[in-house]
Structure formats: C-alpha cells, structure tokens
Design brief:
The protein is mainly alpha-helical. It folds into two domains: 270 residues, no CATH class; 71 residues, no CATH class. The chain contains 20 helices and four strands.
Length: 435
C-alpha cells in the first residue's frame, strides 16, 4: 500500500520520503496556524458567530489542503485568505451594510466563476501570458512580503507615525527570542539538518513558556457549531442587490493571489518545467476554486493558496503528502483551536523571515540591466510587500511591462492577452481608488 502511495506521489522522482513530507506538513501548519484564531476574529466583526467561524475556518482549510494534496499532488496548503477576509468584513459587510449571509453568497458565486474559468482553460492561458521574468519577481516579492510579516510579528519592525515603519526594541522578549530562533534555524539549515524550521519553532516555543509568552484561552469549538453558518449563504441576495462588482473583486483577487502563490511555491520547490509551465496546473486551480465554493457553504470567506506553504517546501516538502498532513492537522484543530494559540509569534516569525530570505534567490533570473524587464520586475518585487497584496504587485508589474513595451515599439500581436490584463488591472486600480 505504501509503495503504491509513494508511486502516486512520485517520491522517487522528487527525491523525498515520508519523514520529510510529514515534517514539512507540520512546518507549514505551524506557520499558518494563526489563521485559526485570526480569521474567526475578523469574521466575527461582520456578525458571523465566532465558534461557527472557527469551525468553518478549520474545516475549509482541512478540506482544501487535502484536496490539493490528493488531486494536484502539490505541497500547497490552503485556508481562508487574509486580506480577502478583511475585505469581506470591513468593506462589504460593515461599510456597504451587506449581511454576512449575502456576502457569503457573493463568495460562492466567485468560486463558481473560478471553476468555470478553470474548466474553460482560461487561467492556464493567463498564466502563460505573464512573462516568466515576472514569475521570478513575484517569487522574490512574496519572499519580501512574508519576511516583512515575520519582522512585524517579531517586533523588530513597528509602526512609526513619522516614517510609517521603524525598528522595535531587541530588549523585547518576543524580539530577542525571534532573533535567536532565526539564528538557530539558519544554523541548522546550513548544516543540512532535516526539519530545521520545525525544530526552531518547537525550541523557541519551549523557551517562551517560562517568559509567559505562551497563552491560550479555553473555549469549546466543534463541528456542531457549524449549524449557525453552514448553508446560510444568500445567493439570491448577492445576485439581486447589485453586488456583481463585489463578486468580481473576490474572483479577481483570488485568481491573481492564487497564481502568484503557486508560482512562488512551485518555483521554490523546483517543480516548474523547463518551458516555464506548471505541471497539472488545471488541477491546482480546480482545487482552489472548489475550496472557495466549499468554504462559502460552511460559512467562511474566500479560501485560497497560502504563501506560508513555502515554509514546508523549505523544510523539504515536495509532494501532495505535505498538503495532506497540513490538512489533517487543520482537521484536528477544530477541537484543539485554543491550544494552537500556544505557539507564539516569536516562534513562527523567524520561520517566515528565513523562508523569505531563501525565496529571494529567484530574482537572479531577472535581466536587471534591461529597463524593459527591470522596471516592471522591480515594481512587482517591492509593491507586493509595500501594498500587502500579491495581486497589486503583479498588477503594477503587468501594467508597466505593457506600457514600456508599447513605448519601445516592442508590441507583439501574440501578447494581446497581457495587454488585456494590463487594462483590467488599471481599471481595477481606478475603481478601488474611487471607493
């Protein structure tokens, strides 16, 4: 039985094994487990019952990650997306006064459109239209993005009213523990120790305990709580209240965040083909789209691929088993949600910083001496972390690529889709600027 599974998941060709895949899955879970606590808190502001939102978050992440692992066989974990959950709550529900049930209907419709676009093969065409050097910029930009998040979680980068960002105090226990964790993980990586990131997370968590940085609150969360949100979505309301632009935003951001994430993860894992294509791309997109539909039915905002999957890849994960292990842990999290909060940010922050640094290796593929390539790549690279959005960074990169090639007289008819995407991104930015 195990031999058949190893053959199905291509262990031999990927150079992996069960121990490595399991460790990678645990590592991915630990770096993104914060979503179990953060997503329900955000959705609760929209009126979604907190226990139900927690159960829906765990169940949708479990279903989506396991589906990705089995169907697409990639080490990509999924969960309700950060950013999209904030848009769901603070823009759609609170600013526009849309009931959360109707907002869930809009999420459902965006997932259905995602599925239709995937079935038609349009997403594969879109991905092929993006210049491969922008792939490298996206991978590097996501590396900076997750490293920036890690620095914030570590308390090394803080808000500054004068300069937007400033340096925190290394006398802060969270900060010096995170720095210790970073040195430990990096040292273990240098010595090629398997599970270096996971060892670092566990070690820092143990050190954080006597410093009173490990906290959790007892609460009862279970599948029974889902009765408050499961199948409560209002699809008719989403169609009848002029909310199609909301459906479009959910779809548009999910599409390009997902494309950017899968490019970054597959590139970091060395799974992109020599012709810059991604094997089994339709299966990846099918899993993501199905996950969004499933999530809306259980009671959570858009489910999407997570850049934290790169932590598992850095730990050696190469096959779908990594995603399946992460999914199974999310399933366990339904009853263990309070204990997941015991892993402090001081432990997960260095993992994000280390993975971010490793992802910057991709930018060596960019022809920095050529402004036609360098400027769009630079905009993509820096605007992903600066705007907290993969879609925004990729959008500016595509617009700059199209505009500069037009001015340089380098327009090619076969690149028509790239120019269409540039126009759509420009329209999106103008629309967002007016709201």
């Amino acid at each position: 039985m195990l031999k058949r599974l190893e053959t199905y998941f291509e262990f031999a060709s990927l150079g992996t094994n069960w121990r490595t895949e399991i460790l990678a899955g645990v590592t991915t879970f630990l770096t993104m487990a914060y979503i179990v606590l953060v997503n329900p808190a955000i959705l609760a502001d929209a009126g979604v019952p907190l226990p139900a939102a927690t159960a829906a978050t765990c169940l949708s992440a479990a279903f989506a990650s396991i589906l990705m692992g089995i169907v697409a066989r990639y080490p990509i974990a999924l969960a309700p997306g950060m950013g999209l959950n904030a848009y769901f709550t603070y823009t759609v529900c609170l600013k526009m006064h849309v009931p959360w049930q109707t907002a869930l209907g809009a999420v459902f419709l965006s997932g259905v459109i995602f599925l239709a676009v995937t079935a038609a093969g349009i997403q594969k065409t879109i991905l092929r239209a993006i210049p491969h050097q922008l792939y490298a910029a996206v991978a590097g930009g996501i590396g900076l993005f997750i490293a920036f998040i890690g620095f914030q979680h570590a308390g090394l980068v803080i808000r500054d009213p004068n300069t937007l960002a400033g340096m925190g105090s290394i006398r802060n226990p969270t900060t010096y523990l995170a720095l210790f964790g970073l040195i430990l993980m990096a040292a273990l990586e240098i010595r090629k120790v398997k599970g270096a990131i996971l060892i670092g997370v566990v070690a820092v968590t143990a050190l954080a305990w006597p410093l009173h940085l490990v906290h959790w609150t007892h609460s009862t969360v279970g599948l029974s709580a889902l009765t408050q949100t499961a199948f409560k979505l209002d699809i008719r309301g989403a169609l009848g209240k002029g909310l199609l632009e909301i459906v479009f935003v959910f779809f548009f951001v999910d599409l390009f965040d997902n494309l950017g994430t899968l490019v970054a993860v597959t590139k970091r894992a060395g799974l992109i083909a020599p012709d810059h294509s991604i094997p089994r791309l339709n299966r990846i997109l099918f899993a993501d789209a199905t996950a969004t539909v499933f999530g809306s039915l259980t009671g959570t905002s858009t489910v999407t691929s997570y850049v934290e999957s790169t932590a598992g890849v850095a730990a050696g994960g190469r096959s779908g088993v990594t995603a399946i292990v992460t999914g199974l842990l999310f399933l366990c999290a339904i009853v263990a949600a309070p204990f997941i909060g015991a892993v402090p940010q001081a432990a997960t922050a260095p993992a994000l910083i280390l993975v971010g640094s490793l992802m910057l290796a991709a930018i060596t593929e960019i022809h920095w001496h050529d402004p036609l390539v360098a400027v769009p790549a630079f905009l993509t690279l820096v605007l992903i972390p600066f705007t907290y959005s993969i879609a925004n960074g990729l959008g500016f990169g595509i617009i700059a690529w199209a505009v500069l090639h037009l001015f340089a007289g380098r327009f090619r008819r076969q690149d028509w889709l790239l120019y269409v995407m540039a126009a759509l991104f420009l329209a999106r930015f103008i629309y967002l600027g007016a709201n």
